Amino acid sequence: MKICEIFKSIQGESSYSGLPFIFVRFTGCNLRCAYCDTTYAYEEGYQISEKELLEKIKLYGINNVEITGGEPLLQNEVYALGDSLIKSGYTILLETNGTLDISRLNKKIIKVIDIKCPGSGESKKTEWNNLDKLDRKDEIKFVIMNRDDYVWTKRISEKFSLTEKFTVNLSPAFKYLKPQELARWILEDNLTVRLNLQLHKYIWKGVERGV
Ligand code: SF4
Questions:
Q1: H helix or E strand, kind and range, residue 211
Q2: Residue with the nearest Cα to atom 6 of ligand 1?
C-alpha cells in the first residue's frame, strides 16, 4: 500500500477529539475539495507492506489508530489492514469522504463519513447508500464553509434522521468560517450536533503536517 505519513498526535476531530491517536494517512484522493488541507497526500508517499506498517504502529505504544487520507478506501490493502488491527485489539477510526462503498470494511471499525457540502465543490459524488451500512458507533462529519452549507447540512440531517442515528459533527472550514459563527447557528437552532474544532490546528498553529 502507499501511505503519505504516519505520526502520533492528539485527535482533533470527531467525538474522540482530545485523545492521543496514531494517524496513518493513505496517499491518493478521488476528490478535490475547495478547502482541502492535505493536498500533499494526493501524490506524496511511499510503499509499505502491511507487516512493516503493523510494526511501526506497535512502536508508538498506544491503542488508538486513525486511518485517513487522502481517501483510504481507494487502496484495497486497507481492508486487510483494518482486519489485522482489529484482531490485535486496536480501536480504529477510519475517515472516508463518503464517495466509495464502505461495506467491505471490518464491522468493528468506527467509520467517520465526511458528507461533502456544496461549498466543497464535491457534494454530488456522495454515495448515499453508505448511510444504511452504518451503526450507532459510527459518526458523520460535515465541513461547513458558509451559511449555505449550514442550511444544506440541516436539510440533509433531517432528511436522513442523522442526529437520531449517529453522532453528527459540524466542523467550520478552517480559514473560511469562524467557529463563533457556526456555534451561534447551532445554538440558535438547538441542533443536537457536536461542534467539531480541528483541535490540532489550535495546539500546533501553522503546522501543517505530522499533527
Ligand atoms: S476528501 Fe479530504 S483529502 Fe480528498 S480533497 Fe477532500 S478534503 Fe482533501
A1: none
A2: 33
DSSP character for 190? Answer: T
* Pocket probe mutation, ligand 1, options 97, 100, 174, max atoms within 8 Å of Cβ: 97
36 CB-near residues (< 8 Å, 6+ apart): 29
Angle value at C-alpha 124, between 174 and 191, nearest 5 degrees: 55
Supply the residue whose CA is at minimum distance from atom 1 of ligand 1: 97
Domains and CATH numbers, the chain: 2-203 (3.20.20.70)
- Rounded to whole angstroms, the Cα distance separating 3 from 110 reads 20
Beta strands 64-68 and 91-96: pairing type? parallel
* 96 Cβ closer than 6 Å to some ligand 1 atom: no
| Residues 140 and 168 sit within 8 Å (Cβ to Cβ) | yes
pLDDT tens digit sequence for 75-101: 999 999 999 999 999 999 999 999 999
Cell output for 68: 485517513
pLDDT digits (tens, 9 = 90+) for 33-81: 999 999 999 999 999 999 999 999 999 999 999 999 999 999 999 999 9
